[in-house]
Design goal:
four-stranded antiparallel sheet, single chain, eight-stranded mixed sheet, globular, binds 2-deoxy-2-fluoro-alpha-D-galactopyranose, alpha+beta, 383 residues, 42% helix
Amino acid sequence: MLDVTAIRKLHQQRFKHAPEVFIAPGRVNLIGEHTDYADGFVMPAAIDFATLAAISRRDDDTIVIESENFDQRVSHKLNSLPAKGKHHWSDYPLGVITVLREAGVTIPAFSLTLNGDVPLGAGLSSSASVEVASMMAILSLTETSLPLPQVARLCQRAENTYVGASTGIMDQFIACCGAEDHALLLDCRSLEFRLAPIPPHLSLVIANSMVKHSHAGGEYNTRRAEVEEGTQILRSHRPEIRLLRDATLDDLKKWGHEMRPEVLKRCRHVISENLRTVAAADALEKGDLAELGRLLYAAHASYRDDFEGSCKEADILVDLASREAGCIGARLTGGGFGGCTVNLVEREQAAAFSEHLRDGYRAATGIQADIYLCRASAGVPAI
Ligand code: GAF
């Protein structure tokens, strides 16, 4: 459990100034995978794992950032920050400073202490929670107050342009705008959203396959490029298709044969996932859990077979979950190629479910999965 008093004390001892402390959550995505950068729909929930950022001003011309998770400190003169990320944990706060500056915000010298309990590399958005907590902390030292959706956009820009991962808006947006006990259906084009209550008799059980996942470089960017390749082909026939959000399964029937086979599959995943996500929000709102579960399993199959973004360990977790009493639905969540599955489970059966899943997974893979019983949480408080 993160301890606000402890980080406050630690920061004060270390930097001799009382800090302001900010908190931003990680997230689990219920459905809508790799749709955000196609301007589509996603339905994540913020979770009760988060990053704390304690900040205070300095009297010199230096930025000092300390990570409790990595037990490391970086320090840079205000006027000589690295121009680009270096695959280091500090890329995230440094990226945030860089985009704020580009947006015209004057950054003062400061000391920042970061500490989080979002499992790293598990597809639960530790990066976005660091970005959002850091941005809110840094903004608190300036005269600038920004609407939360703009904070999300800027944090996404930091990740795209500074860290070098071509991610969409979902993770930063939910870290900003999540609500307790609710999932959030986001239209990634307009950034309009609606909140759907998660019924109190359901638990969000997150199972960590322990297979590491990473966005910067690697398969995430390759998949994104494949989606763009397919979009261009459809656009050449229907110029009003800006992104796959604008395309239909009929378009794929007509022009999919012009695509490389894997590109056709990626596009089919994204277009069908948008339909499933909107339908899942409706099902959740209506309390139609059978339909919601069906959509979650269908989304996993599409992620696995068409997007080829799953891994055998996640497939095993989903398969084991589907056999358990009380499991409404399960799927791989997040950027893919490892990470966690999300399981919607009847609360009364969640403990037994978790135990069976852990045992079954160990028997099938030899891996000890971490299992988290999470609660949908609020996003970062506005300042
Ligand atoms: C990662 C990205 F950061 C998100 O923007 C989103 O694309 C997700 O993968 C896949 O749905 O979390």
